[in-house]
Design a protein that fits this description.
Largest sheet: 6 strands, antiparallel
Distance between the termini: 15 Å
Radius of gyration: 23 Å
Oligomer: single chain
Number of strands: 15
Structural class: alpha/beta
Helix content: 10-25%
Number of helices: 9
Shape: elongated
Strand content: 25-35%
Order of helices and strands: HHHHEHEHEEHEEHHEEEEEEEEE
Length: 410
């Protein structure tokens, strides 16, 4: 996904505020039959939070064509999704699919091209109106059904075999759209169904970025020979440049160590409550002598077949995991069969995407020696003000000094 509106600030995102309008609520749970007459098992309706003004602002931000243009122009993103859908054609052909947050409907059309019997394209923003026109123009109205509303509210009176969604926000969890995928899974996905992507991993690593610091801060140290600018402007410049997370592109050369896994998400089993707050402890060893300017965060998502639970383990075969959160250079993620896993990566060393990387800068750099230890913890939690915002609590220590950085991704 992309920023909350198309007129973003320098960090690539900004809040919206619009008046909320009522959305029809679905009441209760019931036993239903799919369109082929097969009775679906009775399941408890998942608890759903009400639609707030913040939600309506979020949906409104996705009504702008510019946001969808940016996403579709991201060839890494769009072509990976198309490849994943075609790679799983045997799971999709003749089956029922739901596209959560369908936008212009491009993923729904890919699924129809892969032979889906029926695709429910769900989006709560006004872009659903255009998606319906796109479907009509491609003569797919008999197979792609556009539903304008929240996943929590729309009616689908049959089980689905496949869920596809491009739900990832900056830093993976920003915007909290994964909760809608979880809701769709718990409401409609048949046992043994397919979720694309199937898993996700959020990483972090310490970075050096002297050019960025010079551009934003050192400029004020010598402004046309006026030395007094330093004391007056540098503190404000640091606050303006580094108070909030920054969405920008860095390269592998900026990264000082192998990354650390902040959070692994299995889309088949993750819960909404699990995502409300994520905490991890980290320990890095710098590979070089350089100033430490902050931490970078990025993610990858993996597309693989339905989860298979082996008799000897409770862990699904297609989702890799490791007790050690440190990732070496040859394996950013453990996989049982790398040849079968299609991965969309936003890592600094991989081709750039519209997600870029998310950086949390320090107000003042920390001078590191080679092999110096950097350790601490980070907590990512949904904002109480607006669950689509992310609170970031970062603790870090190195060279006998300890620091705390608090920031909010709005």
């Amino acid at each position: 996904m992309v920023p909350m509106n198309s007129s973003c600030n320098s960090n690539g995102y900004s809040p919206h505020s619009v008046a909320a309008k009522p959305i029809r609520q679905r009441r209760g749970g019931r036993r239903s039959r799919d369109r082929d007459g097969v009775a679906l098992p009775r399941v408890a309706e998942p608890e759903r939070r009400p639609c707030t003004e913040f939600d309506m602002a979020y949906f409104q931000s996705y009504s702008h064509v510019g946001i969808h243009e940016e996403m579709i122009k991201d060839r890494v993103r769009t072509e990976t999704y198309k490849s994943a859908i075609m790679q799983h054609q045997s799971f999709i052909a003749g089956k029922v699919v739901v596209d959560v947050g369908c936008g212009t409907g491009i993923l729904s059309i890919f699924c129809a091209q892969a032979g889906a019997k029926r695709v429910y394209a769900v989006d709560a923003s006004e872009i659903a109106i255009q998606a319906n026109e796109v479907v009509k123009a491609n003569n797919l109205s008999d197979r792609v059904i556009v539903l304008h509303g929240r996943v929590e509210d729309v009616e689908i009176d049959e089980g689905v075999d496949v869920i596809v969604s491009e739900w990832m926000g900056y830093m993976l969890l920003y915007e909290s759209m994964l909760g809608s995928v979880i809701t769709a899974r718990d409401r409609w996905l048949k046992p043994g169904g397919l979720i694309l992507p199937s898993s996700a991993t959020l990483y972090m690593a310490p970075v050096t970025h002297s050019d960025r610091y010079k551009e934003s801060i050192d400029f004020w140290r010598n402004v046309y020979g006026i030395d007094s600018m330093v004391s007056a402007m540098v503190p404000l410049a640091k606050q303006c440049a580094f108070e909030e997370p920054s969405v920008e592109t860095i390269s592998g050369e900026n990264v000082l160590t192998w990354p650390h896994v902040v959070k692994q998400v299995d889309c088949y089993t993750v819960t909404i409550q699990e995502l409300e707050s994520v905490t991890t402890r980290y320990r890095f060893c710098s590979m070089m002598r350089a100033p430490l300017h902050g931490f970078a965060f990025w993610f990858d998502v993996e597309f693989c077949g339905p989860t298979i639970f082996p008799t000897s383990s409770d862990s699904p075969l297609c989702v890799g995991s490791s007790n050690d959160n440190s990732i070496d250079g040859s394996h950013r993620k453990k996989r049982t069969n790398p040849n079968e896993a299609l991965v969309l990566s936003t890592a600094p060393e991989d081709p750039p995407t519209h997600w870029q990387q998310t950086l949390i800068y320090f107000y003042d750099p920390v001078e590191l020696e080679q092999d110096q230890i950097i350790e601490g913890s980070v907590t990512l939690s949904q904002s109480k003000e607006n669950p689509r915002f992310m609170n970031i609590h970062l603790e870090y220590a190195s060279g006998g000094r300890a620091f705390v950085k608090e920031s909010v991704m709005r």
